[in-house]
Amino acid sequence: MRVSRTSSVKPAARTHSVATVEASASVEETGPVRSVQEVAAFLGIPEVELSANVRRGLDKLISEVDRLRRVGEAKDRRIQHLEQLADEDPLMPILNRRAFVRELNRMMAYAERYHVPSSVLYFDVNGMKAINDRYGHAAGDAALGHIADLLLDNVRSSDVVGRLGGDEFGVLLAQADETAATLKGQQLARLVAKTSFSFRGQTLSVDAAVGAFSFDGTGEATDILDRADRAMYERKRAERKAS
User: Quick one: which of 52, 54, 69, 89 is 20 to 30 A from 180 by CA?
Assistant: First the structure.
């Protein structure tokens, strides 16, 4: 899942007359006010009472409501942007660890409520030190971005991808038991190993170890991540012994 979120935004403060507040509320529900007649009808002012002074007053009201709307929309966009910055990894368009744990808690609640297991994959990227030492940290950043893109492009929209720290990544697999998660993790690890990337004319590659852990909604999110982390290290040790 690419970074996405919903926000609960407080409405912009309104300190004008009751008529202004009601008119602006109507605007938010029905769209921009287009004429003095629309406002007059909303406020219950008969057409015969629309004198020149009343029309001028309503024109000012319309302008003020439109201004308030624009201010509110600008604040909403700013809040959404700040929320995205707070949730997103600074290097790539995936969740940071804090936001990933929040999404894990949400998925745990869903698993517990509907009795449907879900799983977490824990990836540890190998070869990062060699890339950083030989080509510099910019190459290491490119390698991490390459991994993030591969994960994002090869999971479902209902799944969640995050960076857990350094060269470690996590994937939440919605409604996937441990068998399905293990197979998916192995598929993704093979994809990482066989897919190279380019950095300043050099063709580079990395590989990753992965562990899977399934959860039913009980326990703590940090414990679940620890279990997946341990599964990853056990698999890494087994692969080293086999090589």
Answer: 89
Give the dihedral sign, CA 181/182/183/188.
Answer: positive
Q: Is beta strand 207-215 parallel, antiparallel or unpaired with respect to 202-204?
A: unpaired
Residue type, 172: L
Instruction: Kindly list the domain boundaries of the chain, sorted by start residue.
Output: 18-87, 97-242
β-strand 207-215 against 118-126: which pairing, if any? antiparallel
**Distance (Å, whole) CA 122 – CA 228:** 6
- CA count, 13 A, side-chain hemisphere, 14: 21
User: Bridge-partner residues for 203, per DSSP?
Assistant: 198
Alpha-helical segments (H) within the chain: 18-30, 36-43, 52-87, 97-114, 128-135, 137-153, 178-194, 221-242
Residue-wise pLDDT tens digits, 107-126: 999 999 999 999 999 999 99
Please tell me which residue in 167, 216, 223, 229 is annotated as part of the active site. 167
- Which amino acid type is present at position 179? T
Predicted confidence (pLDDT) per residue in 192-238, tens digit:
999 999 999 999 999 999 999 999 989 999 999 999 999 999 988 88
CATH of domain 97-242: 3.30.70.270
* Distance from C-alpha of 65 to C-alpha of 15, rounded to nearest angstrom: 12
Annotated catalytic residue 167: yes
